[in-house]
Design goal:
Elements: H1 11-27, H2 35-44, H3 51-58, H4 63-77, H5 81-90, E1 93-96, E2 102-105, E3 112-113, H6 123-132, H7 155-159, H8 161-184, H9 190-243, H10 248-253, H11 255-269, H12 278-301, H13 303-319
Antiparallel strand pairs: 1-2, 2-3
Helix pairs in contact: 8-13, 9-11, 9-12, 9-13
Length: 326
């Protein structure tokens, strides 16, 4: 029918077309596209990223993971919202204000809405997190503890008096820095240092264990989502087969679909009393992914401290070989 009106491409017209399409599919026993499964595919079939971003994430260069890291770091360093925005801008991010705050690195063409990282990254939550962290001071950048030179085995020490003098002075300075570092952590002896290292290693292992538990749950929920999708997709074929079990030609043609339906339904029945809701599964996956990101950030942030502690313990063994008491 000609109305003289132009088609307007927007969210409203899209949902109107989508509604009519779904209605026709249901009337004709056709598969209706599950928007939550489609969202799940975009997010979790490639770890919540576009194909390119997922490939970069594997290499440690994902811009979304980098944005999350920068936001988390600068939130802790900012006393208010304006300072946070200033620090993000100084870091090279272009900021777009609107219904949802968005950031764009200088080497990217598109803005990324912070809320797409997770529930903790909406503008409202970011402001709340700044308030929560007001009394927490960001750790200053520290000079890394260097290596102590073994005066007994180093060839240069034996060959050069000048180098021996420099190495002696270097070792004294390094050990002084080491003592200052461990005293700040309330450590006054080697026994305490060993115990501190042991407890810190246990805490990191606990974080790793928590991440593994989340990974297992994500895998299970992902399998459930795929099974729910399979059941919905091939339900019509199965119903037709059950309605006409003597139709061998139909069964042979759609045997693969029917088998997938039966296997998926069997797996779901072993864990659920009724067919799970894809929206609820997706919501749960999003929350787990956000929790995992937080734990991974915490795990990563403890690495530098552990490296320093191991270095100090190694230095002590080389330099003194006895308990450090003073």
């Amino acid at each position: 029918m000609v109305t003289g009106k132009c088609y307007q491409s927007n969210k409203r017209s899209y949902h109107q077309i989508r509604y009519q399409s779904d209605k026709l599919c249901k009337e004709n026993n056709l598969f209706v596209i599950d928007e939550f499964y489609e969202s799940y595919k975009r997010k979790y079939k490639t770890n919540g990223k576009s194909w390119y971003e997922n490939e970069q994430f594997k290499k440690g260069t994902s811009w979304k993971s980098r944005l999350q890291f920068d936001i988390d770091r600068l939130l802790k360093q900012s006393k208010d919202w304006e300072e946070f925005l200033k620090k993000m801008a100084e870091l090279g991010y272009e900021i777009k204000h609107g219904k949802h705050i968005a950031f764009k690195p200088k080497d990217k063409q598109r803005f990324t809405r912070a809320k797409t990282i997770g529930e903790d990254y909406t503008e409202e939550r970011l402001r709340e997190r700044i308030t929560e962290n007001q009394n927490i001071k960001a750790s200053p950048v520290k000079k890394r503890i260097g290596n102590v030179i073994n005066m007994n085995t180093n060839a240069k020490v034996k060959e050069s008096k000048g180098y021996e003098y420099w190495a002696t002075k270097h070792n004294l300075n390094t050990m002084a820095e080491s003592v200052i570092f461990i005293r700040k952590h309330g450590i006054n002896s080697v026994n305490q240092l060993d115990e501190y290292i042991r407890k810190s290693a246990e805490e990191r292992q606990n974080l790793q264990d928590k991440i593994k538990v989340i990974d297992i749950e994500i895998q299970k929920l992902s399998a459930t989502m795929d099974q729910v999708h399979t059941v919905k997709k091939y339900r019509a074929y199965y119903k037709e087969y059950k309605a006409n079990p003597s139709d061998k030609a139909f069964f042979e043609e759609y045997k693969a679909h029917i088998t997938l339906y039966e296997n998926s339904l069997s797996e779901l029945k072993s864990s659920y009393s009724k067919l799970p809701n894809s929206k609820n599964i997706l919501d749960r996956l999003d929350k787990l992914q956000e929790k995992k990101n937080t734990l991974m950030q915490e795990y990563s942030s403890t690495k530098s401290t552990m490296d320093e502690l191991y270095q100090i313990r190694k230095n002590y063994g080389i330099y003194m070989g006895k308990e450090m008491e003073r």
